[in-house]
Structures are given as structure tokens and as C-alpha cells.
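Fold this complex.
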Amino acid sequence: MMLRATFRAEWTKLWTLPGTIWQLLSIAVLTGLVDVGVAATVHCPCEQDVPKTVLTGVLLGQAAAAIVAVVFVSNEYSTGLVQLTLTAMPRRWLVLVAKAAIVTGLVLAAAAAGVAGSMIAARLMIPSLSLDDGAVLRAAGGSVLYLGLVALLALGAATMIRDTAVAIGAALGLLYLFPMLAALATDPHWQRRLEQIGPMPAGLAIQATQQLKSLPIGPWPGLGVLAAWAFGSLMLGLLLFEWRDA
Amino acid sequence: MIDVLRAEWTKFRSVRGWVLGAVAVVLLTVLVGLIGRSECSYPGPDGRDTACTLPLGPDGTAVTDSFYFVHQPLTGDGAITAHVASLTGELHAHGDTTPQTVPWAKAGVMIKETTSQGSSYAAVLVTGGHGVRMQHDFTGDTAGSATGRWLRLERKGKNITGYEGSDGSHWTPLGTVTLHGSPTTVQIGLFVTSPPYTEIKKESLGGVIATGGATVSTGTFDNVSRNGPWNGTSVTSAADGIPSDAVGYTEQNGTFVVRGTGDIAPVVPGGPSAGATITQTLTGTFAGLIGVIVLATLFITAEYRRGLIRLTFTASPHRGRVLVAKALVIGAVTFVGGLIAAGIAVPIGKKILKDNGNFVLPVSMLTEIRVIVGTAALLAVSAVLALGIAATVRRSASAVTAVIVAIVLPYLIALAPVLPLGVSQWLLRLTPAAAFSIQQSIQAYPQVANEYAPYNGYFPLPPLGGFAVLCLYAVAALGLAVVLVRRRDA
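Structure:
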């Protein structure tokens, strides 16, 4: 009973936030638009990893996924609604679990729509791209999971930080900084290490379909690294949520 | 206006979190820039590590100066004429030899101060694919005809004039130069060199693999106007990794066959030999930039959230002025912070690079100042852009994300060579990320074969041009914000 009530409450809160629909739509639309735009630059016969290239839109879509998750939490703090929430639902962990489940579900649905749309569009533009190939399906499905995990990572960050601007800055900074440093690092060992531990470069290993052995980290272990970041961020958020005064 | 400025400054400095945020921006910019600095070790054309020092040209530019020189001393005035009968080359890679002449293989006549690397020179030469050129002191390059084969260099007093001809008697001057320091005795003779070839393989997100190898070219000269004795010198450093028996010269009945390898050119990052750049000490700019964007956004959205904005607009009814004052305050604060950060990061980063044995490509004082002040200006104008967007959308999350995505993402995508070069370059022309060109400290030379791409540190726009793109975005965002803030209810 408590569980259902908590979920319903969180669902209502998310759904009645003014931006939610637009943010979810923008996950799908931004990912899809960039994907299709990038697919237009691919001319085959081609040497590059086509599925990975086409899925570049995830780089932009993840920003929208992070916004949904951050605002869902931080908005309660900026309006003071959180005090009412915790009075009604004293089990704080349950509130966070409900928030996490709802936001992940919605982001996954939006991401699936965006990725599926762009893969179908890319297939029409690039005849040599095969959609029933195992690696291609893994890249596409993994990209959807990637966006879901990014939302969880951002949710944890927002629970820790509580301020919208700082939380979204921290989440996006964490995501974009590792690949940026890796690209600019001059030491190949450091470069590899940064690509292994960074949530974004490691997580995006899931999109690779070629030369898997030469990757700094394999597709599934890479997604695992992102999952570990997301889990760690949520756990830290939960700890602070339980300990701190709201 | 002064009152409004003072009010905004008081608001900024009295929020402890914001002042700490500004300090954090400085720390982030400096510290993140220190991550991942390598020890010098880069593979030469043969796969072995090459040494990490580079010769310097007469004007202080780092240069590659390796070739085979058949020379004799010349004191006072004199000239040399030669006909290049042929120039052919071969690629050496993985133990195989493939016949192919690289476009910038060079065979010609040269007057050089001494046979040591980096000394001043003037040369007229035939190239593998770019016709006749007159080159001097590594950076000077004048194109001649596409098909000329007769070359002449003449020294009169201090002046050295290069000519090309269609036969041995009609000459077209290409240019006149003087050697650095005007030495009385110089080396005059024939030379051949042949730059390594590279093949760029593109990898996903963040990796370019350049494979390649050394090339050796053979130039055949006849109708040489000077008589012996000749000395053959392989001008090279041990680091070039070229088998010594691959180069040399033979002479038979006035026909010289010269085999050489290397290049005579300024060093360009991404090319076969590299060095560190001062731009690499500023990778922390990204971390600082994200902090600046958050700070500038909060500077306006916090007022809306707390309702302070109504008081502000009651006290100073010129709403446009309030926004401009905010832009000036946040711009000035981030400019000073950026200046401190870059002013620390560049010298410390340079020292660390050097201590690790890296060769830091020398740049002029003016370039270094432009890079440091430019970094501060980049942060300041980004702050104004963020302020403008935040005042327009009035939502922290959208504003912060929009600005981060607009500035950081295009650069990230351009750095990762997944897109065709042209697309990457347009991204860095049209988006606010163009402003990172103000940190470029290296120059592109048309006469040096290299991939002049964003991931090698080359921006499509000149430093100030790219910065102007960001300024346009910032002015547009602030203008839109002023219009909207005047019209809307607070």
C-alpha cells in the first residue's frame, strides 16, 4: 500500500512538472536528429564503425536525460515541496527508489523511441547497415541502457547536491570531462586509463561493433563501469538523503 | 549605472557559495590541466622511440632538418646550377620497400651556413608533387613552375637569389633572401630529402592511429656547374632512425645520384615528429568553463527563485541596465579568475612537461600572452553567454545544459575523429566552440605535409576570428535577454 502510494505520488509530481514532457521528447528528438544528421555524412564503402558513428546523437541526448533526472529531485528542494513529501512518506529510501524507478523507466522509453527511429532512418540511408546483426543490436540497445544509467547518475548527483544549476553542471561535467581529457592527454597510458574509468567513454564502449579487442574496455564491462558510477552516485545520494535534514 | 554595478557586485561577493565557486573555477582550471601529462616518448618512423629534443631554426622555431648534402665550401660570391634529371622515391615500412615518390620529396641546390641542424639556408628544389620551390630558413616557401627542372642559386654579397629555368640558359628569378648572420664562408651543393609518409586511420571517440614509415628518395643531377672536390654529409640526428647505408651519393661523369631521407621544415604537431604545445597545459579550461557556466546561471536564476528580482527591478527600473551590470560583474570576475588560472597553469604546466623530458614547441611571447589572456576572455564571454541564456529561459537546468552543450559538445565531437574532417571544421566555425581557437599556439604550413585537423590542435578559424564567434553568440543572448526582461513580468 505504502509502495503504491509512494509510486503514485512520485509519478504525479514528475508528470505535473511543466518541463517533463518536453525534456522526455527532447531525449528522443535530439538523439534522433543528431543520429540522422551524422548518418548523412557516412558514405559507404566505409572504414569507420557505422553503428557507433550513427549513434553519436546519444552524446546530446544524455544531456536531456540528465535534466529530467536532476530537475525531478532539485525542483522539490527549490520549492520546499520536499518537506511535505517527507512528512507524507517518512521512509526516505522508498521515495528515492520510486523516483529512480520512474525516471529510469520514462528515460528508457524515450531513448528507445529515439534510438529505434534513428537506426531505422540510418538503415534507409546506408544500405550496408544490417539491423539484425547481433553487434548492431547490442550497440543500439546498449545506447538505450546508457541513457537510462546516465539519468540514474544524474539523479544521484541531484540528491547529493540539491541545487539545480550546480547538480546539472556536476553531472554534465563528470560525463564530458573524461573524454575531453582523454582526447587531449598526451600520454597513451593515461588516455587508456581515462577511457576505462570515465562514465561516458567507458559506457559508450557499448556502441562499438568493430575491433573490440583493441578497445580500452569491452562493451559490457564498459557499460558496467557506468552502472557502477550510477550505483555509487545513487548510494551516496541516498546516504546523504537519509542523514541530512531536508 | 555605477549604483547598479555596485549593487550587483555586492550581491555577488556576499554569497559565500559563489565566491567559493569562483575560487573552485581557478583551482579546477589549474589542477585538471595537470592530469595525464606524459613523459616524452614517441615512436619514430621505424617504431623506436626518438629523442625528445628538436633543433631550432634561425628564428627560434622548432624544425626538422635532415637530408643528404653533397657540398663544398664557398667563400664570397658564387653560384651553382644543376639539372634534376629524375626524382624517385620508395616507402620503407614493416621491412618492405614500395616504390612511390611522396609529394614533398625534395631534390635541389642549397646554400647553407654550416652542416649542423637548424642553421640558416636557402634552396631551390624540385619536389615530388608540388613543382619547383624556393625555400629558406624552414618557414619561407615560394612556389615556382610545376615542371621546371633547371635550378640555380647565386650569391652576391649578402643576397642569395634563386632561379629556375626551362633549359640551362634562360632563368626566371624566384626570390632573393639573406642568410641569418651573413656568414662569409658557407656550404654550397646538392641535396635530397624525403619526409616520412603517414596514413591516418580513424578510430572511434578519441583515437587517431597514424601509421607510416620512412621514405628514401633518389635524385639524379647532371650539368652541375661546379667542380669538385665534394663532401657527402648526412645531416641528421641519431634519432631519425634511418639506416645509414640507405643514404649517400655517387658521381660518375658529372652525373650525381644522391639518396636522402628526412625533411627540412618547421615541426608541426601531428606530423612525423612532435613536441608538446603550451595549449596542452590548459586542458583544465573545460572544467573551469563548466564551473563558470553554473556560476553565471545562478547569478540570475537565484534572484528569480528567491524573488529578489522584484526588489532589484523596483530599485533600478532600467531592467536592461541591471542585466548589463550583471554581465559586467560576472564577466570581470571570471576574467580575473581565468587570468589567474591560466597565468599559473601555463608556466607550471610547461615546467612539468619539460621536467618529464618533453620538448615544448617554442612560441613567441606575444602568442603566449594571447593564449593566457584569451583563455581568461573565453571564460568571461562564456559567462556572459550563460547569463544571457539564463535570463532568457529563467530555468537553471535548461540554461546550464544549453550552454555546456553548445560550447563543449561541438569541440568534443570535433576532437573525436568520427565525423569527416569538413564536418568537424564547420562545427568549429559555427558553434560557440569556435572560441577555443584562441588557445591555438601552433601554426599550419602549406609546405609541410600534415593533417591540419582539430584533433591535431588546428582550428579552422584564426584565434580572434573564432573568439569573435563566441562574442556574437554572447551579445545575441544578452540582447535577447534584455528585450525579454523588459517585456515580461518579473
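Chain A touches chain B through 48 residues (CB under 8 Å).
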